[in-house]
Amino acid sequence: MFYSIARGIVRALIWLLNGNTHYENKDALPDGAYVLVGPHRTWWDPILFALAGAPRKFMFMAKEELFHNPILRWILVHANGFPVNRAHPGPSAIKTPVKKLRQGNLSLIMFPSGSRYSNELKGGAVLIAKMARVPLVPAVYQGPVRFRDLLLRKRITIRFGAPIEIPAGKLTDETQKALGEQMQAAFDQLDVEINPNFKYVANDKKYEEEKEHGQV
After folding, report:
1. pTM of the model as a whole
2. How far is CA 3 from CA 34, 52, 120, 206, 207, in A?
């Protein structure tokens, strides 16, 4: 109930703040659970991914420090967030989403590159999808990367790609590498489909902040 109400409120806020949001190729989304993956370009792209994927509900990982605040912890838990130690993820970072994905009620939003400024695709999304027996669904965000540009009502586009099925059998290093390359190729193709001239330019101030804190 909280998730549905919060999603409605956030949708209204996005409309008031921007009002120029477009979701493309939603027909590609599977009927069942999946892992939604994309490059991390702004702090609000996971919110827009969740709105774009409605009516399906999503869960997401959040750094465990956010759960130290009791009020924020209550909000995160009821919004289907679960804590992860970013320095030492531990088994729960895999087991928790796998269990919930297998139940079929929630999908998972993940950014395989981790940081907003990294192009390195990590294997966590592939492993979770493999263990949960669900596909990966690529998606990209194109739009403002600075909040002030968001308020200028510049166009925002979320575009989904075709599901990537995880092959049967042992998940080898070669398989993970191939799937990582397939994900990156899907992201690149989606960007071209939205805008052939698109080039992501990070918010330099935010980049320096994350670099200083070892998050890049």
Report:
1. 0.87
2. 18, 14, 31, 29, 31
Sheet-wide strand order for 156-160: 21-24, 156-160, 136-142, 35-37, 106-110, 57-63, 81-84
Going by C-beta distance under 8 Å and a sequence separation of 6 or more, which residues neighbour residue 10?
47, 51
CA of 25: how far to CAs of 30, 147, 195, in Å?
Answer: 12, 26, 15
| 36-79: pLDDT as tens digits | 999 999 989 999 999 999 999 999 988 889 899 999 999 999 99
Helix (H, G, I), strand (E, B) or coil at 96: helix
Report residue 175 as tokens.
């398989």
DSSP designation for 79: T
SS3 at position 107:
strand
Residue 182, both tokens: 């397939």
